[in-house]
Design goal:
The chain has 4 helices and 18 strands. With about 290 residues, the chain is mainly β. A 6-stranded antiparallel beta barrel has the order 1-5-8-7-6-9.
Length: about 290
Amino acid sequence: MLKTNLDKLVKLSVQGQITPPLQRGAYRVDREGVPFVLPGTGGISYNVKVGDSAFGWAGDHVEPCVSSAATIDDRGSAKNQAYNTLSCVGNEAVVISGDAKGAKGVVTGTHGGIEHVIIDFADEDLDKMVIEDKILIRAFGQGLELSDYPGITVRNLDPGLLDKLGIEEQDGQLIVPVVGKIPAKLMGSGIGSASTASGDYDITTTDQEEIKALGIDQLKFGDLVALEDSDNRFGRSYRRGALTVGIIVHSDCLLAGHGPGVTTLFTAIDGSLGVRLDPNANLGKMLKIGRYR
């Protein structure tokens, strides 16, 4: 068992609500200059779940299952920032209003820009939910440290997931299973952000031939991936030899500089973080949620 500062972490309530889809214009323009009108962020996605492909949907930035925020009208507010920052992948979420009151779900990612926290629920609970139902999250995980690996920064991870990830220790390295590796040259929207304790950043997919050649088009919601030469300690930037492990949280996108979103879980620049390829490295399989319920 990994040594951590678990007994020092603060478990705090944060409260949000199911958000409506937003449309800021009649249409958007894709990376080839073609206008499109498609579903995107927000709402309740009845047929898009953790474990489904992150590619191929007639949509843009689609978030699996339930999208939530602290406030709907002011996404840049301090309340939304706290809700997005303190919520961690693996945290328990409970519906506290409406016909689905008492339903329990799991946080599966955070999405920057729109400032959403994405939550998985069972189908029978989704059928009872409506926009603006309130959700309480037991936020737990920010501040988590690995005592024997001071060079590894942990972000956005519920401590309860550590023993479920299939992590191994080998020759002074922490080895995390991932389904694939992403070259730093493909990381786009969100790079340069000041913090990695909220939101995500995107794998750019404009070069479809490269995406297919690397097998990136096979990624699923909930997959763990390695971001090569990516330093996510104090923001998102390129650094040769750095390594970040994150989770796929939203779908592919048509906009230039965008693609499937990745929320940071681990990052290091000192070589103490390593990965091994494992096709089963998916949050849904680990927690029996999404398509794996």
